[in-house]
Write a structure and sequence with these properties.
single chain; alpha/beta; Rossmann fold; 2 domains; six-stranded parallel beta sheet; 17 helices; 14 strands; globular; binds nicotinamide-adenine-dinucleotide; binds uridine-5'-diphosphate-glucuronic acid
Length: 458
């Protein structure tokens, strides 16, 4: 088949895979190639067992793969063939060296720039899909063009705002699509070329055009603001527990003010995921590197509050269970960082498991989609850990259940049946406030909601 245009994406991860699959679905006249250095991951994209779980993804892949969507590892070919090259490689926090623990590690990004430079022929539009520090496009431009060999290219920033678990819906119905380009003839043309892709399904009024720097910074700021809301509501939970207020009522009352809005005000055991922490720390690092200490300190507290919340959750468990968890069996309901995903990156469950093991507790982990990742995350940890798919089996013989992930299935379990199989007193720590606490209490459980007084039998 003759395609009107070829585009590619370097990086076949949580963003690259779903994003390109939706573009392929909505732009059947485009050939879409997704490439990665990870051969095993590409093999999974080409199999019936996709490398990630995302509701609706399988259907989109089934409709496009092999027709106009292709996953492979031949980077040179993809770069040569494509007019538009999306770059969606990982940009984790630096682990060592200058800025360790704060700054973005741009090694994958830079290596991609060099690969593009090596294989590009003709004019290319290079699209920053990864989340990057503001002014990264400058560095990319310097790699793509030095005096001896200047490639013809234009760099556009088009950050991705999808959330895991709802990625396909977010891609099909985005609140906005942001395209940052230079205010030059070439820059405007490149922005229009990217806009043309999205116009296949996104209404024009939802497509925002801005400068490259505003676009890069908007992505960091959007994540920082979302995380800030969670830390803000979480910061009130200990106050509720002491005073007898209930965080769900407080959150509802505050969120009904249309200026505040109700979303992202669910108190939790702490936010996780691969991006909130790393993007805020990146913002903090940038601010600090420009000498803006107050700005840096302000945003740093969003992350510190999140650490506090995870720590507090474990402390509550220890206190409630008579100041010792030694030899107690504790069952974690959920290991994924949120519901509807198999992703466990930065999941609060990891920290909590480590702390419980340090207290000499045995930990039983159940999760409908994330057990494989949990196994690999916890490999090498010493202590007694079990992985059990069935939540009823997992809870059997436990002293406590701790709800870590808000999977819908945990709401509807037969807790009477579970109670009967547990040690007594049987505790439930609801780190997501998804359960019916009064009903659990009347079954005999000692119930610890988050941000409300516990319901106890003594
Ligand atoms: P990921 O780790 O799932 O995927 C990145 C992929 O890039 C990996 O498969 C890796 O093998 C590949 N890669 C690394 N270096 C490469 C190279 N030189 N050549 C080819 N492939 C290479 O990461 P992700 O979650 O998809 O995130 C990618 C970017 O998107 C990050 O900057 C992240 O901040 C941003 N982002 C992520 C999400 C999300 O929900 N995960 C949402 C919005 C934005
Ligand atoms: C987040 C943003 O929502 C996306 O817009 C962004 O594109 C993405 O980061 C990214 O850049 O990677 P994601 O991390 O996938 O998406 O999921 P969220 O729904 O934002 O949840 C993040 C964490 O916050 C989860 O652990 C979730 O359980 C927690 N959360 C969320 C709360 O604790 N309370 C809430 O009210 C909402």
């Amino acid at each position: 088949m003759e395609f009107k245009k070829t585009i590619c994406c370097i990086g076949a991860g949580y963003v690259g895979g779903p994003t390109m699959a939706v573009i392929a679905l909505k732009c059947p006249e485009y050939k879409v190639e997704v490439v990665d250095i990870d051969e095993a991951k590409i093999a999974k994209w080409n199999s019936d067992r996709l490398p990630i779980f995302e509701p609706g993804l399988e259907e989109v892949i089934r409709a496009t793969r092999g027709k106009n969507l292709f996953f492979h590892t031949n980077m040179a070919q993809a770069i040569k063939e494509s007019e538009v090259i999306f770059v969606s490689v990982n940009t984790p926090t630096k682990e060592h060296g200058e800025g360790a623990g704060m700054a973005a590690d741009l090694r994958y990004w830079e290596s991609t720039a060099r690969t593009i430079r090596e294989h590009a022929e003709g004019h290319k539009i290079v699209v920053e899909k990864s989340t990057l520090p503001v002014r990264t496009a400058d560095a990319m431009a310097k790699i793509l063009c030095n005096f001896s060999d200047c490639k013809s290219f234009e760099i556009v920033s088009n950050p991705e705002f999808l959330a895991e678990g709802s990625a396909i819906k977010d891609l099909l119905e985005p609140d906005r699509v942001l395209i940052g380009a230079r205010d030059t003839e070439k820059g405007r043309q490149a922005a229009l070329a990217i806009e043309e892709i999205y116009l296949h399904w996104v209404p024009k009024e939802r497509i925002l055009l801005s400068s490259v720097w505003s676009s890069e910074l908007s992505k960091l700021v959007s994540n920082a603001l979302l995380a800030q809301r969670i830390s803000s509501i979480n910061s009130i939970t200990p106050l509720c527990e002491i005073t007898g207020a209930d965080i769900r009522e407080v959150s509802r009352a505050a969120g009904m003010d249309s200026r505040i809005g109700g979303k992202f005000l669910n108190a939790s055991v702490g936010f996780g995921g691969s991006c909130f922490k790393k993007d805020i720390l990146n913002l903090v690092y940038i601010a600090r590197s420009y000498g803006l200490e107050e700005v840096a300190a302000y945003w740093e507290w969003v992350v510190r509050m999140n650490e506090y919340q995870k720590h507090r959750f474990v402390k509550t468990m220890i206190r409630a269970m008579f100041n010792t968890l030694a030899n107690k069996r504790i069952c974690l309901f959920g290991f994924a960082f949120k519901a509807n995903t198999s992703d466990t990156r930065e999941t609060p469950a990891l920290y909590i498991t480590q702390k419980l093991l340090e207290e000499d507790a045995s930990v039983v982990i159940t999760d409908p989609k994330a057990l494989e990742n949990a196994r690999s995350d916890l490999k090498g940890l010493s202590g007694n850990i079990e992985f059990v798919e069935d939540p009823y089996e997992a809870a059997k013989g436990s002293d406590a259940i701790a709800v870590i992930t808000e999977w819908e299935l945990y709401r509807d379990l037969d807790y009477g049946r579970i109670y009967d199989t547990m040690q007594k007193p049987a505790f439930i720590f609801d780190g997501r406030n998804i359960l019916d606490h009064k009903a659990l209490h009347s079954l005999g459980f000692q119930v610890y909601p988050l941000g409300a007084r516990p319901l106890l039998h003594w």
